[in-house]
Amino acid sequence: MFHNSIKLISRVCSPIVQTSIRHYPAPIKRFYRKTGVISSNGRYEITLDQRKLKTPKGAPFYLESEPLAVAVATEWDAQKETIDRSSMHLTALSSTVLDNPSGLNKLDIVNYLVNYITTDAILFHASEEKRLKELQLAEWSPIVEWFNKRYDVDLKPTDGLEVPSLAPGTAMNISRYLSSYNEAALNGFMFAVDTIKSVVLTFACMDRFISVEKAVLLARLEEEFQLGHWGRVEWAHDLQQLESQARLAAAVMFVHFNSSNAFVKQKIASGEV
Question: To which protein family does this belong (predicted)?
């Protein structure tokens, strides 16, 4: 009886281990051999063999930029035995513009980007780590100075978590510049900002003041500083860096392909760039 009681207590007190199994969707096998671009009424569509590409919502997938259409077709052509949608950033951006799943209009995106400036990653300097702050001043300050001069604003970095204040006219100047782009290009700006957490670095990259690689490195400055002290898992951190570079490069291309020559001339003539 004593032994039976011990067994019963053991059963009651022993934790019940439940294993949960995650069910991931099966990868989609490549179902086409060739990709192509066809033109119709000034728009461009992507073909996968004889099928026309559609958006996730099932709408026709069409683009107004031929170079962008070629780039999207190249993304699909680069797929191997299975389709990795997470690697096709231009396709995803184009689908977002066409489907507009968040219901955003042009003004919504402009306001989002302008408001993001007060949380811009490179405006927050370390307050306790002296060496890190010196590095931030050396690497970030020239970019902020360029941004201030380029867009006639006066952004000032802050120490710690204090939110930087915007000087009068800052929001208006940046809003005016962004509003000169069409809605598709603004989606590219938003994708870039969400990738590197910085409006300033995004603008510097779009204006070709710095390269994509440099922008990502500056966005990761604090992380790279910490990794220099504590070490890094090369494959993991390298993959993160390469993914950020791929996303930012796609955003830059997307903005460029959605900005016509006439559009650029209009901005230059008005003195907004």
Answer: Belongs to the ATP12 family.
Gap between the Cα atoms of 48 and 76, Å rounded: 8
Give tens-digit pLDDT for 161-190.
Answer: 777 778 889 999 999 999 999 999 999 999
For residues 270 and 21, give the distance between their C-alpha atoms in angstroms, rounded to a whole number.
59
Q: What CATH number belongs to 35-99? A: 3.30.2180.10
CATH architecture for residues 106-270? Orthogonal Bundle (1.10)
- The strand pairing partners of 159, in sequence order, are 125
Tens digits of residue pLDDT in 243-263? 999 999 999 999 999 996 433
- Listed in order, the ranges of the chain carrying CATH 3.30.2180.10 are 35-99
To the nearest 10°, the Cα dihedral for 206, 208, 213, 219?
-60
3-state secondary structure of 241: helix
* Three-state secondary-structure class, residue 19: coil
